[in-house]
Amino acid sequence: MSLRVSAIACYCLGLWPLVAGSADIIINDSAPPGRFSRADVRAIFAMRQRLWPNGEQIKVYTLADDHPVHKDFVKNNLNMFPHQFRRAWDRMTYTGTGVAPIQLDSEQEMIKKIMNTPNSIGYVSKKPDNAKIRLFDYQ
Predict the structure, then answer these.
(1) pLDDT tens for each residue of the chain, 139 residues long
(2) Helix, strand, or coil here: 54?
(3) Of 20, 66, 85, 93, whose CA is between 20 and 30 Å from 72?
(4) What's phi and psi for 121, nearest 5 deg?
(5) For the chain, what percentages of helix, strand and coil (3-state, to nearest 5) are there?
(6) pTM of the predicted model as reported, rounded to 2 decimal places
(7) Calpha distance 58→118 (Å, rounded)
(8) Of 124, 99, 100, 126, which Cα lies nearest the Cα of 113?
(9) Beta strands in the chain (DSSP E)
(10) How far is 89 from 87, CA to CA, in rounded Å?
């Protein structure tokens, strides 16, 4: 009973993302270091920000819309719903103004892609122990 009350209180106070497990955003070690805002993260994954501050192209990877880690990532890291992101990507694709990120089937595939693709970004449920991958630093 007390756990339920605590969860409701955290949700009402806007602290639910701190209680719920949020996905870790990971990047290839070649990506430039720096501190980014939540708005930067949203712009990167919405494919509106296509270059790192050093001018290099960002390679964005996501999981399928119905993947539990994708749902968790969008809700808890970006404070949006997966269908909102899908609608934005579809709009860009159908109007010819942009492309959707590359969609992968599993977290293992995500780790391999981020590890082997310079300037890439993605997310997983837990950061892998890999020297070529680091956590993305944002507020």
Answers:
(1) 444 444 444 444 444 443 446 899 999 999 998 889 999 999 999 999 999 999 999 999 999 999 999 999 999 998 889 999 899 899 989 998 888 899 999 999 999 999 999 999 999 999 999 999 999 988 7
(2) coil
(3) 93
(4) -140, 145
(5) 40, 20, 40
(6) 0.82
(7) 9
(8) 124
(9) 24-28, 59-63, 102-104, 120-124, 133-135
(10) 6
